[in-house]
UniProtKB/TrEMBL annotation:
Keyword check for Iron-sulfur: yes
The keyword DNA repair belongs to this UniProt entry's keyword annotation: no
Highest taxon in the source lineage: Bacteria
Annotated protein name in UniProt: Bacterioferritin-associated ferredoxin
A molecular-function term among this protein's GO annotations: metal ion binding
Amino acid sequence: MYVCICHALNEKKVKAALNDGATTPAAVFRHHGCQVQCGKCVPTVRAMAADHRATCAQNRAQAASQDHVPAYGVAAE
């Protein structure tokens, strides 16, 4: 699905920018060498960035909790 018609940015391109460290709509556009034009896509890109941050935080929390489980798979009491 296209997110930004002005610059032909689709979900895949936005997600690639987010995976490369972009955290805001402006950073997503800079990643692709462009700037916001009409602005209609900004709320969507902002929501995608927020979802990406939440997913990353959840993944970090899961990884941290798995680090505390003993190797034999039974939690210590």
